[in-house]
């Protein structure tokens, strides 16, 4: 049973607009949440993280929001650029030990 | 920057063969991980290691074993490869439990025929 779910396999957005990627989780004991980006033929690379005690973290064009009551996480990319086209994985860390990953959302940013 | 190197980008093996996947990191990281990535299932943890000679089962360890004789190297072993082990295998490392950021290798696409 997947503890971290990304229900949208793909998302298409126009360049310059906002991309919103969503993630739901089931375990309220997760310590941290993370987003990774993956290009074809490369390993995932770390993008941004948020502690379970926060509700927002920002890094340049990337903002992650955490809604603990809804057990929901989202990544906002503003403005979206063609180079952002990739697969995005959300992940949750349990007991600072085990990482659980979602199935990924493929983002396509159209020029 | 941290470099995690997986020895092969593509591997083709026969059913029943013993398969070794090698992973090396160059930053003296304590923790290392093996994941497999399958469409629609995301990354699933096979095994991880806190330190040299230490290992813990992940969520899908059946059919796999691991070896960590040196800190920089973490090997995944398929004792008798089967077709359902055809997958993308990703190795990752992190400095220690105090850090949340994982560094991944580029992956090994394994096909078992």
In round numbers, the mean pLDDT of chain A is 95
Main beta-sheet annotation of chain B: 7 strands, mixed
Largest interface: A-B, 27 and 24 residues
The total of beta strands of chain A comes to: 11
User: Shape of chain A, please?
Assistant: globular
Mean pLDDT of chain B: 93
Distance between the termini of chain B: 37 Å
Total helices of chain A: the number is: 0
In terms of topology, how is this protein built?
The complex is a heterodimer of chains A (111) and B (113).
Chain A (H helix, E strand, L loop, with lengths): L3 E2 L4 E5 L4 E7 L4 E9 L6 E7 L4 E4 L2 E6 L4 E6 L8 E9 L3 E4 L3 E6 L1
Parallel strand pairs in A: 2-11
Antiparallel strand pairs in A: 1-3, 3-8, 4-5, 4-9, 6-7, 7-8, 9-10, 9-11
Chain B lengths: L3 E3 L3 E4 L5 E7 L5 E8 L3 E8 L6 E2 L6 E7 L2 E6 L8 E8 L8 E2 L3 E5 L1
Parallel strand pairs in B: 2-11
Antiparallel strand pairs in B: 1-3, 3-8, 4-5, 4-9, 5-6, 7-8, 9-10, 9-11
Task: Tell me what you see in this structure.
The complex is a heterodimer of chains A (111) and B (113). By secondary structure, chain A is an all-beta fold. Chain A is built from no helices and eleven strands. In chain A, the strands form two sheets. In chain A, strands 2, 4, 5, 9, 10 and 11 form a six-stranded mixed sheet that branches. In chain A, strands 1-3-8-7-6 form a five-stranded antiparallel sheet, with no helix packed on it. Chain A starts with a strand and ends with a strand. The model of chain A has no long low-confidence stretch (mean pLDDT 95). Chain B is mainly beta and 113 residues long. Chain B is built from no helices and eleven strands. Chain B has strands spanning 4-6, 10-13, 19-25, 31-38, 42-49, 56-57, 64-70, 73-78, 87-94, 103-104, 108-112. In chain B, strands 2, 4, 5, 6, 9, 10 and 11 form a seven-stranded mixed sheet that branches. Chain B has a four-stranded antiparallel sheet with strand order 1-3-8-7, with no helix packed on it. The N and C termini of chain B lie far apart (37 Å).
């Amino acid at each position: 049973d997947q503890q971290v779910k990304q229900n949208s396999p793909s998302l298409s957005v126009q360049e310059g607009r906002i991309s919103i990627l969503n993630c739901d989780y089931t375990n309220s004991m997760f310590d941290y949440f993370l987003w990774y980006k993956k290009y074809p033929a490369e390993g995932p690379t770390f993008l941004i993280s948020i502690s379970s005690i926060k509700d927002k973290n920002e890094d340049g064009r990337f903002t992650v929001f955490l809604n603990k009551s809804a057990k929901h996480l989202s990544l906002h990319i503003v403005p979206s650029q063609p180079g952002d086209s990739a697969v995005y994985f959300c992940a949750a860390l349990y007991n600072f030990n085990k990482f659980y990953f979602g199935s990924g959302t493929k983002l396509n940013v159209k020029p | 920057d941290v470099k995690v190197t997986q020895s092969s980008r593509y591997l083709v093996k026969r059913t029943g063969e013993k398969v070794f996947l090698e992973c090396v990191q160059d930053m003296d990281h304590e923790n290392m991980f093996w994941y497999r990535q399958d469409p629609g299932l995301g990354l699933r943890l096979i095994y991880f290691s806190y330190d040299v000679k230490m290992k813990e089962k992940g969520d899908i360890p059946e059919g796999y074993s691991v070896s960590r004789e040196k800190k920089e190297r973490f090997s995944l072993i398929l004792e008798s490869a089967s077709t359902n082990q055809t997958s993308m295998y990703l190795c990752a490392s992190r400095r220690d439990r105090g850090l949340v950021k994982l560094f991944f290798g580029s992956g090994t696409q394994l096909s078992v025929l």
